C-alpha cells in the first residue's frame, strides 16, 4: 500500500535494527484518513471470504481493526490485556509472550461474541514474532469459529512471525512488509521482489 509506505518513509523513526517508531500516525497519534484507507484495503483483500467479525487486540490494533470492520460491515472485537470491571465471566483466554518487552500477558475475550459459524479476520498493527496473532488464533480455535485470514498493517519480515503463520497455513496479508531496518533505513519488500528505501 503506497500511501502507508510513504507515511513510514516520511514519519517513521528507526529506533534500532529491530524497532520502528510510528507514533505520529499509528501507535499514539492516529491518522484517521490513513486508517480509513487501511480499512478499505483490508476489506478489499478479504471481500470474498465471508468475514463475519474482525478480531484485534488493544490498544494499537483497534484503529485498523475498526476501519476494516467498518468497510466489511461487520463488528470488531478487541482482546483485552487488562482485567475489566465488566468482563469477568465466560472468558476465552490465551497467553501472549512479548520477546520485545520480555513479558507475558494474559489476553481475554468474552465467549459471548465469537461462536459457531463465525469467520474471523484477525487484524493487528505490527507483526514481529507473531505472538499476539498466535494468541488471537488460540482464542478463536477454542470456539467453533474459524480464522479466515490475518491482516497486518506493518510486518517486520526479518522477524519470524509472518513465516510461522504462513507455514501454519494461515493467509497473512500485510500492507507494508519491512525487509530491514539496518543503517537507520527502512527497506521494504516490494511486490516485485526488489528492495527500495
Ligand atoms: P509479536 O506479537 O509479533 O510477537 O510482537 P512483540 O511481542 O515483539 O510486540 C510487542 C508489542 O510491541 C506489540 O504492541 C507490538 O505491536 C509492538 N511492536 C513490535 N515491534 C514493533 C516495532 O518495530 N514498532 C512498534 N511501534 N511497535 C512494535 P503492544 O505492546 O501490544 O502495544 P499496543 O498495541 O498497546 O500499542
TrEMBL record:
One GO process term, biological-process aspect: purine ribonucleoside salvage
The entry's keywords: Cytoplasm, Glycosyltransferase, Purine salvage, Transferase
Subcellular location: Cytoplasm
The protein's Enzyme Commission number: 2.4.2.22
Gene3D superfamilies, A to Z: 3.40.50.2020
Reaction it catalyzes: XMP + diphosphate = xanthine + 5-phospho-alpha-D-ribose 1-diphosphate
Keyword Glycosyltransferase listed: yes
Binding site for xanthine: 20, 27, 156
GO CC annotations, alphabetized: cytoplasm
HAMAP family from the UniProt entry: XPRTase (MF_01184)
Cross-referenced PANTHER family: HYPOXANTHINE/GUANINE PHOSPHORIBOSYLTRANSFERASE, XANTHINE PHOSPHORIBOSYLTRANSFERASE
Family per similarity comment: Belongs to the purine/pyrimidine phosphoribosyltransferase family. Xpt subfamily.
Its biological purpose: Converts the preformed base xanthine, a product of nucleic acid breakdown, to xanthosine 5'-monophosphate (XMP), so it can be reused for RNA or DNA synthesis.
Subunit structure: Homodimer.
This protein's name: Xanthine phosphoribosyltransferase
Species for this entry: Bacillus canaveralius
